[in-house]
Write a structure and sequence with these properties.
31% strand, alpha+beta, four-stranded antiparallel β-sheet, Nuclear Transport Factor 2, Chain: A, 191 residues, single chain
């Protein structure tokens, strides 16, 4: 419920608008002062709710902005910005990729769909996982290509800042597979 109220201001706005219109209509039809006072109260509560909704950022909204920023930095080839978001205790695989990053020139990095953002139960350190489909068009030396991928990014919060600890990537259909299909595909990608 919190997700709908704090991440979708239009739901609150539409609900408040129609309730206010209904109360004003009831006041016009009946002439009772109670209805216009309630309508005014609902309208004010709707405006306050929308202002709170817009000004307050949930953890999922913060993570969504974080991952969009990384994609924008990769597309603009701002590698120092990207590598500054890699956790010092990141996996060896991620650290080796971090060192190879500057040899790649990215043309396009698009997040097509974020399938889910899961925030871990632990508070110290806070962890999160983002599952998404991405499309990357890049070149390295003479070779270039466009690759759609399903990506799972593992994050950890250090000193109030989210940082990438590890990531996985698979074929873009991975999110649609059942558990058996995912297990078969996972066996092909074991590190």
């Amino acid at each position: 419920m919190q997700e709908y109220l704090l991440e979708s201001p239009w739901i609150l706005g539409v609900l408040g608008f129609f309730l206010t219109i209904g109360l004003v209509y009831a006041w016009i039809q009946s002439g009772r002062d109670l209805f216009w006072k309630c309508g005014l109260g609902v309208a004010l509560a709707t405006v306050v709710g929308i202002l709170i909704n817009i000004s307050y950022k949930t953890e999922q909204e913060i993570l969504r902005e974080f991952i969009w920023k990384i994609a924008a930095d990769l597309e603009a080839n701002r590698f120092s910005e990207v590598t500054s978001r890699v956790h010092p205790d990141a996996t060896e695989y991620l650290r080796s990729l971090k060192n190879q990053l500057e040899s790649v020139e990215f043309d396009t990095v698009r997040i097509k769909k974020i399938h889910g953002i899961e925030i871990g139960k632990a508070k110290n350190p806070k962890t999160a996982t983002i599952r998404m489909n991405v499309f990357v068009k890049a070149s390295r030396g003479e070779s270039s290509g466009a690759v759609p991928r399903w990506v799972k990014v593992h994050l950890e919060q250090e000193k109030g800042r989210w940082m990438v600890v590890d990531y996985e990537h698979r074929d873009p259909q991975y999110e649609m597979l059942n558990r058996d299909g995912q297990d078969r595909l996972d066996s092909l990608y074991r590190r």
